[in-house]
Amino acid sequence: MTKRLIISAIALALSLVSWAQPKELTLEDIYKNGTYAPKGINALRWSEDGKSFYTLEHNNETNGVDIVLNNIETSQKTIVISASQLIPEGQTTPIIIENYIWSADNTKLMIYTNSKRVWRLNTKGDYYVLNLTNGHLLKLGQGLEPSEMMFAKFSPDGEKVAYVYKNNIYVENFHGDHSHRTQLTFDGSDIIINGNFDWVYEEELHQHDGFRWSPDSKQIAYWQFDTEGTGTFYMINNIDSVYSSLIPLPYPKAGTANSAGRIGVVDISHNPQTRWFDIPGDPRNNYIARIDFVPGSDEIMIQQLNRLQNTNSVYYGNSHSMELDNFFTETDEAFLDIHDYIHWGKENKFFTWTSERDGWRHLYKVSKDGSKIEPITAGEFDVVEVVNVDIKNGYVYYIASPESPLERYLYRTKMNGKCKAERLTPVGEIGHHSYNIAPGSKYAIHTFSNSETPARYELVSLPDHKVIRVMQDNKQVAQNYAALEVPAKEFFRVDIGEIVLDGWMIKPADFDPSRVYPVIFYIYGEPWTSTVQNRWGGNNDLWSRYLAQEGYIVMSIDPRGVNTPRGREWRKCVYGKVGIIPPDDHAKAVKKVIETYSFVDPERIGIWGWSGGGSSTAHLMFKYPDIYSTGIAVAGVYSQYLYDTIYQERYMGLPSTNPEGYYNGSPINFAGNLQGNLMLIHGTGDDNVHYQSMEMLVNELIKQDKIFSMLSYPMRAHGIYERENTTYHLYRSMLKYWLENLPAGGR
């Protein structure tokens, strides 16, 4: 064999070896390169007839985007709005579309752009309206400061737009190529909020847009908040100037004063005057959770939660006479959740309502006067989400998972409640399925994923669920992931005596059952969410697989009280005992895992979590030091007195009536029991769980003479991702801590 042939043969052999070896997962690929980040199908909107949908598509000539109508039956694409139509006068490039809204008559298009972040979301920005009749593009709010308008929306007749600017409400009437602006409220300030929400309403009641147009376009109903008397929390920015600056945040902490909220109605006229509903009860000790006009009427449905959030008083408010009628009330011995699944039947004879009154979350039909309530769905399962209420054809479409709380499937039931639930998701693809159903319910965008499959989006027909077109298969991401050859996530159950809990584990690729391995448990453990679900978990899941690659077994177990479809008792047994029952469940489960699996090293048990999971981690490290030897707590609440009124009081009651629960539910009170290795991580700009929480725990640990580690991220918020290199640095730091304090690998 010649020298050249020998070299070629060696090169071929080396290339085959390289090809045969699985690719290693790296933190760079997860957190910097986006190698395993699935693509979505953002900005898809259904047409009114449900037979077409709109998409945003790049225009090479203008470097903008066109709005394109996609006909489902013919597959024809039609540009309905060209990027060239979206170039403002005096500019050369089109507006960047961040969101868009059609007027009800489809004669105008409103575009949201130049947004900026307010707490969680980008809710301030600029708005333009394109008149489709004459092609004129008008910028709203002429003369106002840029990127300061909020929640602009068309009136039902399409002749006006209302919006919030600096906590006041404005309306603009269109006149040809111009508009006339009228200010409707005048008392907006840093203290008085009109048409918007304070921090706690936005965070815990998921409210953003604080006003509603009347069906006849002549009135606006809106929330007003008086924040005076609410405690102000100050965050400190130490890094953007040589002098620090204070960031004031009105934030009601558990047991303290809330903002005073009320509902006003203002007529759209040249001399607007607000009239106020006299809703019973102290406005600082009740929450106006929802308001909406009853279709085609001058009545407003108002939902008022009491401070304990165990009573929802529902009123009709007449927007002219301002009379109130408390026609319906929902109660629960523990707490109530607000569900936005109200749909009105023909001639407003009934509306749909979600309740757990029979022990499971189901959809009901309530008569207009509230005197009669009938079940639409029934059975020993939870309705996870109502996807569509098709009044015309008499069906409700919803997500449920009667067989397993780890999965999600589409069902439909007749509105009369007289037929069995009909599963529409085909049997076979086990995991999470979600749907965006078109008007008329003939078509839907179907999204599927499971723990080993990144999200796939497809257009399907209903009810046969036939795939018409794959919109995004994320094939490249799936191939990148498959090349890793990482072990699959294994789901299991743990019987702790009182209850059976769900869990999952990921083992190292070179797992040897004859050896013992360290285990890192990932936990949340509070009522907001669940960690044990059969869905694509994104970067958080990839982090777990990376740790498994490094020689750890990674597990997660859901204790009672987490948000998963296992019935009312499962979710609400923790009322008054958050931070008490869930950590106890988890500790019992870990003991059972150690007994059950011989490959688990009881001397190397780690625990970590974020937010509520940070709180749970601290609880477990302090209360069960004989089980957990190393923990990382990120952005945790360490004293329940430090968190906000709505969340903390919903699940724990008032501090004044449940002092024992607040004490035992706050890990700071047990810090003196720390024996293992604990790392605390927090962002100093966290407006949700304040940096104060970590500082108070640090102070207590010092007082108790406990050695620990801590890492602060300057001016990062609750997600700790802002500014350059933050996320990558965070996970590298956690990896270093695990490797140094919880030795990896089998023994």
Note the main attributes of this structure.
single chain; 747 residues; alpha+beta; Lipocalin; Methanol Dehydrogenase, Chain A; Rossmann fold; eight-stranded mixed β-sheet; five-stranded antiparallel β-sheet; 42 strands; 35% strand; disordered N terminus
Sheet having the most strands: 8 strands, mixed
- Strand line-up across the major sheet: 35-36-38-37-39-40-41-42
- Structure annotation, total helices: 12
Measured by DSSP, the beta-strand proportion falls in 35-45%
- Termini separation: 47 Å
CATH topology group of the largest domain = Rossmann fold
CATH class of the largest domain: Alpha Beta
Number of strands: 42
Oligomeric state, counting identical vs distinct chains: single chain
* Overall tally of domains: 3
CATH architecture level-2 label of the largest domain = 3-Layer(aba) Sandwich
Mean pLDDT reading: 95
Globally, the shape reads globular
CA-based gyration radius: 28 Å
CATH superfamily of the largest domain: Alpha/Beta hydrolase fold, catalytic domain
